[in-house]
Amino acid sequence: MRAGALVRAVVATIVGLLGAAIPVSAQPAGTLVVGLVAEPVNLDPAQVTDINSNRVGRRIVEMLVTFPDESTQIVPGLAESWTISRDGLRYTFKLRRGITFHDGTPFNAEAVKFSIERQIDPEHPANKFGNVKAVEVVDPFSTFVSRRSR
Which long-range contacts (CB under 8 A, 24 or more apart) does 146-150 make? Predict the structure, then answer.
């Protein structure tokens, strides 16, 4: 057992010394480096179909609601709260204020409407929400989404 500990200590020392001698170049500001087993296929959350794209996307895009790690409970994301009608067909999201996209464009109900509408448009490549009937802007920080049926 002592021999194994000695070998680990020697290896750790050698790696530590070599690590200091190997020049490391800094990544440019704003660069995200992610190690995955395969390349992401797409970084548009509406078009993600693979786990590697999802792993990267979850770290660079926020959603209206999300799941905490290792949980199935829905928690606020960009929506600070939401209500669901008694029949389960209408969802109203109250959005967080003071959020901007990477280019400085404000996040608001119009942005949510645009994002969801491109996903319910049968002609758009991001189409995937066949069960959503309509999206309406209630006010700048409230969005109303209705489902076709339960």
Answer: 146/89, 146/90, 146/91, 147/88, 147/89, 147/90, 147/91, 149/89, 150/87, 150/88, 150/89
Q: Which amino acid is at 45?
A: P
Cα gap 24→47, rounded to integer Å: 36
Mean pLDDT by 10 residues, the chain (150 residues): 56 54 66 80 83 84 87 93 93 94 93 89 77 89 81
Task: Give the separation between CA 51 and CA 32, rounded to whole angstroms.
Answer: 18
Pair 143, 93: CB distance under 8 Å = yes
Q: State residue 64's pLDDT score.
A: 92
pLDDT, residue 147, reads 81
From CA 17, how far away is CA 113, in angstroms rounded?
55
For the purposes of burial, counting CB atoms within 10 Å of the CB of 55, is it exposed (0-12), middle (13-18) or buried (19 or more)? middle
pLDDT at 127: 77
Q: Which helix (H) or strand (E) holds 145?
A: strand 142-147
